[in-house]
Amino acid sequence: MFDYIILGIIQGIFEWLPISSEGVVAIAGRFLIKGIDSLETALFLHLGTVLAVLLYFRKDWLEILTLKNKVLFRFLVISTIISGIIGLILYNSLIKNMAVGGGLLLISGFGLLFTAYFHKAKRTADIGFNKLPVITGILQGLAVIPGFSRSGATIFGLSLGKLSPAEILKISYLMSAPVVLMMSLYLFWQNPVLILETWPALIFSFLAGFLTLDFLLRVAGRIDFFRFILLFALFCFLGAGLEFLI
């Protein structure tokens, strides 16, 4: 149980940083708990942090669900549909079968390189808000790849429009809720035992996520994670090389 609590805390903290929490949790789970599907567990643990998002932004969700904010409602519907389709296709055709052993580390390494690119990419033009759901929906769908940061990618996509930093961060985290709920239901439908195995991690990912959300949102905007991401990618490639040699 203690190992699952550690995984939950890792998920609760890294979810808010522009570093792939999925990749970090999957790799940590692989070393902490023997015999589990670390990628499946990492994806499912997003359910804990998405509950933190729902509670933290409860006023915003009330406006969205009651259609008082129709613009954001439309944005989330379009981006969620696109993310869901891309995420499910990638998960079933590529990630589910390849993300094991050294393959998990290798995929995580490449995903981190993409994330590092998003940190250094510069805006070249202001894109209309009506186009942002498609762009960010695609980027969020790709985040099923271990190491590919969902928050880093969507923040980059949203920054292409005429939005303030505060609006970018809020929309990025609001976007996570519907697609994560869809993915969690899909994983539970495929493997109902998940909830019995991971409930301690879910509880602590929710608690850690809710307690650190406000703080880490502010810190994430001030720290350049570029070098840290590249270093983590290097470790992934080295680990993958050792796995394949052994």
Describe this structure in words.
The protein is mainly alpha-helical and 246 residues long. It has one domain (2-245). The chain has twelve helices and no strands. It has helices at 2-14, 21-32, 38-44, 46-56, 58-65, 70-98, 102-120, 132-142, 150-158, 165-190, 193-220, 226-245. The longest helix is centred in the middle third of the chain and has 29 residues, at 70-98. The radius of gyration is 17 Å and the shape is globular.
Q: What key attributes describe this structure?
A:
globular, mainly alpha, 246 residues, 78% helix
Describe the sheet with the most strands.
none
N/C terminus separation: 30 Å
Contiguous helical run count: 12
Strand content: under 5%
Domain count: the total is 1
Radius of gyration, Cα only, in angstroms?
A: 17 Å
Series of H and E elements: HHHHHHHHHHHH
Number of strands: 0
Round the mean pLDDT to the nearest integer and report it: 79
Helix content: over 70%
Poorly predicted runs are none
